[in-house]
Amino acid sequence: MAFKNTQEVIAVNDGVIQVETDVRQxxxxxxxxxxxxxxxxxxxxxxxxxxxARRKLKYGHQYCPCRMISGNEEMDAKIICPCEYHTxxxxxxxxxxxDLFVSPNYKPVPAI
Length: 112
Ligand code: SF4
Description:
By secondary structure, the chain is mainly alpha-helical. It is built from four helices and two strands; from the N terminus they run αβαααβ. The chain has a two-stranded antiparallel sheet.
């Protein structure tokens, strides 16, 4: 993407920040109404939210940043966060595939 001037760059950056804020609000709203929590690793959460916002800007939906987009609208609808798979993943591992949502039983793996 080529920018014409600094103001255009600022406008694009403002757009990215706004989308990131919107995505964060949706995720936080979901957590309030679901049995899940956000990963206690806030740096990881910030990174995933940033990547969800990037995908929303690029593709129009907050597609899971950890999965491939197929181009098939019906199939891809299943990977809009919170995706169709996270419930089963959290049931099995206490954490979703991208490490965004965790169960209340989740215990972070200690760093070696
Ligand atoms: S794996 Fe987690 S972060 Fe990725 S879409 Fe599913 S719920 Fe969202």
